[in-house]
């Protein structure tokens, strides 16, 4: 029991002596975070050094790890302290040892930055290019769409008609006013707007104009482009490329140590990257010129109007237009369904009236005469039966034509009432759709 206790004390002393021997001179929080990074990286200091010198030819350093490594570049204060204790290298804690060995690499920070830029370059170009292309394409679409031009002419005509008098002779309108169409509501139905009515008119009179949506395929993407941010991204690429070129010039002038592949790898990268960047830069210049033309074409101030605002107006209008189209279609279907149901109910009422009249008179219901078609007139001799049927249906008696009484006549589809005599009744006290004044 005593021996075991002594053995444990000896082990504790050994562990304690190890803790005492471990040397750490850098900030505690910084050392802790650095230790976490190294444990995630799972590479020895020698392997990290080799990856940096060879510009990571074996892809050992992922982009996110490189980004973290840049946060733990040895600072001058760290280097000075570590240099003072370099004779105690074996006693150094893992983070201290890592920072010391990385500080021994010539231009460690610049190499790390160049490697990170190289790895991120293709990704950044891929993010910028679609924005530039969308800006260019959308500007062309806005400028050259004949359907859009004719649509705006119709909108202007609507505006002039609604603003008769002093404000009704406009030659144009601000692009920002375009979406006010969806805010102008019907005085009869608040769910119906001027946009719904505009679509109805276009469908009837100018169906080709509805294809303007197909002409503006790139507008939605262009509406997401912020020119300030885009130019900032281009500027960052330009400055990053220049920094890498400067480091390349520096490394070319100094002797290359064994295993150092910076000059060969970066020289090849610069040749390809410079061409890609020049291509994107030229495309942006062209896109900006096209955008300037588009903005001026619509009478706007290009210095105040950004792409996301300008194309955002058209994108919002396209969305509202599509929604209103769908709502019009839903209204149309609902109306057709109501008419179908009303027709069925009317037919059922007529059949019930026939059956009731037949039961009351004890006469069998009317049937077609053998050998006659549905379009032929059938003489009906059961005057009482038919008279009761007509009265039940609210159609009056068919046996009092001008000039005297006679036998009734039944045509398929209507009882005792001609189409001509029915027309005034359907219009009595009502307005047709064309007679309504929809808007204020």
From TrEMBL:
It comes from the Eukaryota. Residues 1-347 form the FH2 domain. Residues 329-346, 430-440 have a biased composition (Basic and acidic residues). Residues 325-347, 417-440 are annotated as: Disordered. PANTHER family: DISHEVELED-ASSOCIATED ACTIVATOR OF MORPHOGENESIS 1, FORMIN HOMOLOGY 2 FAMILY MEMBER. This is Disheveled-associated activator of morphogenesis 1. It comes from Ilyodon furcidens (goldbreast splitfin).
């Amino acid at each position: 029991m005593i021996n075991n206790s002594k053995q444990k004390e000896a082990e504790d002393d050994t562990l304690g002596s190890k803790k005492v021997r471990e040397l750490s001179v850098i900030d505690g929080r910084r050392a802790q975070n650095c230790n976490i990074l190294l444990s995630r990286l799972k590479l020895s200091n020698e392997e990290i050094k080799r990856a940096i010198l060879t510009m990571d030819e074996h892809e050992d350093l992922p982009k996110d790890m490189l980004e973290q490594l840049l946060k733990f570049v040895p600072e001058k204060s760290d280097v000075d302290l570590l240099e003072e204790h370099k004779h105690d290298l074996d006693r150094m804690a893992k983070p201290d040892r890592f920072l010391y060995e990385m500080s021994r690499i010539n231009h460690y920070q610049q190499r790390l930055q160049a490697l990170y830029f190289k790895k991120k370059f293709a990704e950044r170009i891929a993010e910028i290019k679609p924005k530039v292309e969308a800006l260019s394409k959308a500007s062309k679409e806005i400028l050259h769409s004949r359907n859009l031009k004719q649509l705006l002419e119709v909108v202007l005509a609507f505006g002039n008609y609604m603003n008769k008098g002093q404000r009704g002779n406009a030659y144009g309108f601000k692009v920002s006013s375009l979406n006010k169409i969806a805010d102008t509501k019907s005085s009869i139905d608040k769910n119906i707007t001027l946009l719904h009515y505009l679509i109805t008119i276009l469908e009837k009179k100018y169906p080709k104009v509805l294809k303007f949506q197909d002409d503006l395929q790139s507008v939605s993407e262009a509406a997401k482009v912020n020119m300030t941010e885009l130019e900032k991204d281009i500027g960052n690429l330009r400055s990053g490329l220049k920094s890498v070129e400067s480091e390349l010039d520096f490394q070319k002038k100094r002797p290359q140590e064994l295993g150092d592949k910076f000059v060969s790898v970066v020289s090849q990268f610069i040749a390809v990257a410079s061409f890609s960047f020049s291509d994107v830069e030229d495309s942006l210049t062209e896109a900006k010129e096209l955008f300037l033309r588009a903005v001026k074409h619509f009478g706007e101030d290009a210095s105040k109007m950004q792409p996301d605002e300008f194309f955002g107006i058209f994108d919002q209008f396209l969305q509202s237009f599509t929604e209103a189209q769908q709502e019009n279609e839903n209204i149309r279907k609902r109306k057709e369904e109501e008419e179908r149901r009303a027709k069925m109910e009317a037919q059922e009422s007529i059949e019930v009236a026939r059956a009731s009249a037949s039961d009351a008179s004890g006469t069998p219901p009317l049937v077609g005469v053998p050998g006659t078609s549905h379009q032929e007139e059938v003489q009906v001799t059961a005057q009482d039966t038919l008279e009761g049927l007509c009265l039940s249906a609210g159609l009056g008696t068919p046996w009092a034509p001008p000039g005297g009484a006679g036998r009734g006549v039944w045509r398929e589809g209507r009882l005792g009432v001609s189409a001509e005599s029915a027309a005034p009744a359907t219009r009595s006290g009502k307005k047709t759709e064309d007679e309504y004044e929809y808007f204020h």
